[in-house]
Write a structure and sequence with these properties.
Blueprint lengths: L1 H19 L15 E6 L1 E9 L5 E9 L6 E3 L4 E3 L15 E5 L4 E5 L6 E3 L12 E6 L6 E7 L10 E6 L3 H4 L3 E7 L2 E7 L4 E7 L7 E2 L12 E4 L2 E6 L2 E5 L6 E5 L2 E7 L4 E5 L4 E4 L7 E2 L12 E9 L6 E9 L12 E8 L10 E2 L17 E5 L2 E5 L16 E3 L25 E5 L5 E5 L5 E6 L14
Parallel strand pairs: 5-10
Antiparallel strand pairs: 1-6, 2-3, 4-5, 7-8, 7-9, 9-10, 11-33, 12-13, 13-14, 14-15, 16-17, 17-18, 18-19, 20-21, 21-22, 22-23, 24-25, 25-26, 26-27, 28-29, 29-30, 31-32, 32-33
Amino acid sequence: MKRFLLPFVVLCAIVSLCSCLGDNDNEIEYNEDTAITAFSLGTLNRYLHTKSSTNTDSIYKTTVTGSNYKFYIDQVKQEIYNPDSLPYGTDAAHVICTISTKNSGTVLVKSMTSDSLSYYNSTDSLNFTSPRTMYVYSNSGQQRREYTIRVNVHQEEADSFRWKALNNQSELAALQTMKGMSVADKVLVFGNNGNNTVLFSTSQKDGNSWTKQSRTFAADAYKNVVKKDGVLYLKDGNKLLSCADGSNWTELREINVRQLVAASTVALYAIGQDGKLISSYDDGATWSTEQLDDDQLLLPAQNISYSCLPSKTNEKTDQLVLVGSRDINTYPDDAYAELWGKVEEYASGAATHSWSYYDVKDDIRFRLPRLSNLTVVPYVDVLLALGGDGIGACDEKGFSQLYVSQDGGINWKTSKYFPLPEGLSSSNTSFTLVTDDSRYIWIVCGGTGQVWRGRLNKYGWSDVKKSFTE
């Protein structure tokens, strides 16, 4: 075997040499298939504004790790982009990027001001303040593919809150009391006009024009509205009505309760004629007394509001919070709101839980003040509260802040992420706070008719369609 191998190797070498020295007409074959197969960013500078100790504007620089932001390549549309935008303030004018190509294709970059081309260099920075055109050429230079590359950068701070003043509404200004709800892409305001409860509605995308519905309700119906699983329920006198679209109401049955106060995904909650907290799991047909872990006398009787949020940890589970004040004549010395909470599980075979009283003792530092027309609403994963001047022993000034709770209603603090709009002016007892399906917060003001709408910027960012083809 060894004697045969050496002559064979020599023969192969001779054939190879002859091939190299052969006819000059032999052509080199190039692979014409090429494409950009990967695109990533290096470290980028980010410039942010801040206030100095003397309250003057200043700018400081930090960096962004560009490789943390994935770029998608759509080979059909020949587009390259990052669906998760770079943070606000990122310098897109000086970008170092890394580009990989199939079969070692050559990348050229088109000028932003002309049709001239330049070779891509991984060490040179590029200006991506607007979309850039790049070409990848095959080995022979005969074939090319064109790509549009976008480096997306957020144009606003993620945690910045922006309020917009909408048109003032004179008819809303005239309401003596009000309560807001959202349903079916509408924002509704139920309000007492001195005789009856009237209803106004606007599109969640509008807010500048409101429609008054022809139907009126009992004088106290405005405070008897709750929403269960996307459907409104309203107590009109002794009749229970439901509505899924904000316009067309269906009479369900007569009910004998003092006030509708809350709803979960599966149940309605009310204060019974005997002052007990009761529930119905069949749209008001039957009612059962709820179990409380503390004295019934601690239940709210005035300015009642509630929140229902899905559990962060368990499926088919709601976190309910009931908020309000005890009767001012019986309990004039209360300084803080009364809060109760319940875990509502509605999976098959789930356990039944009692309502827990949030004892507002001195060891809870950030308690919710006892405010007039106190209104609590859920917002994404926090609770927000707004109220007029303090009542009873509470001397808190009305509309001094939005109170924010991140622990389900136990502690309530001021947050820089949730400021009140500058110029807010309202009646002390006629106003409402509403959140809608697009994560907007609405404040509607009696007395002035002001309508405000706002949200955290990051909740308005839509997801970009993602596609990738190598």
